[in-house]
Amino acid sequence: MKFQPGVSGNCKGRPPNTGHRQKLFNSLVEPRHKELVNKAMDMALSGNENMLRVFLERLLPARPKDEPINFEIPDGPLNNAEALHQLALRLIGTVASGELTPEQGQKLSSLIYDHYVLIQTIEVEKRLDAIEGKYKAALEK
C-alpha cells in the first residue's frame, strides 16, 4: 500500500495517556528522590563499583578533550614531501618511546598529512597556472 502525499497514516493521532515515558518515570521517582540518592550514595560508599563510577562520572569534571601536545618541530621549511616524511618519522619515534600517546601521535600525524595535502594543492595550482599561461600564449600567436 502506498501512502498518499499529505495524508497521515494515523488520522486520529496518538491515543490519550500513551505519552512521554519521561513523565511516567518522573512521577515514580520524584516522590522518593532523596531516598534514592541516599541509597545510591550508601551503595557507592560501601564499595559498589558501578555506583561509585556513576557518582565519579557525574561529580568530577570531565577531562579536557583537547590538551596541548609538546612536540618540537625542527627549524627549516616543511614545504616538501621529504621534510614532512622526516617529521613523521620523528613523530613515530616519539610515540614509540612513550613521550607521546598514540592518540596524540595520531592527531599530529593528521596535521602533518593535512599540511602535505595543502602543499600538493599549491603545487598543482602552480602547474595549472603555468599550463594555462602557455596555452593562452599559444592561442594568441
Account of the protein in words:
The protein has helices spanning 21-29, 33-45, 49-59, 81-96, 102-140. The chain is built from five helices and no strands. It is flat, with a radius of gyration of 31 Å. Among the domains are: 23-59, no CATH class; 81-140. It starts with 20 loop residues before the first helix and ends with a helix. The mean pLDDT is 85. Helix 2 packs across helix 3 and helix 4 packs antiparallel against helix 5 (102-140).
Average pLDDT metric: 85
| Alpha-beta classification | mainly alpha
Strand content: under 5%
**How would you describe the shape?**
flat
Brief synopsis:
The chain is mainly α and 141 residues long. Helix content is 62%, strand content 0%. The protein has helices at 21-29, 33-45, 49-59, 81-96, 102-140.
List its salient traits.
141 residues; mainly alpha; 5 helices; flat
Write the layout of secondary structure elements.
Elements: H1 21-29, H2 33-45, H3 49-59, H4 81-96, H5 102-140
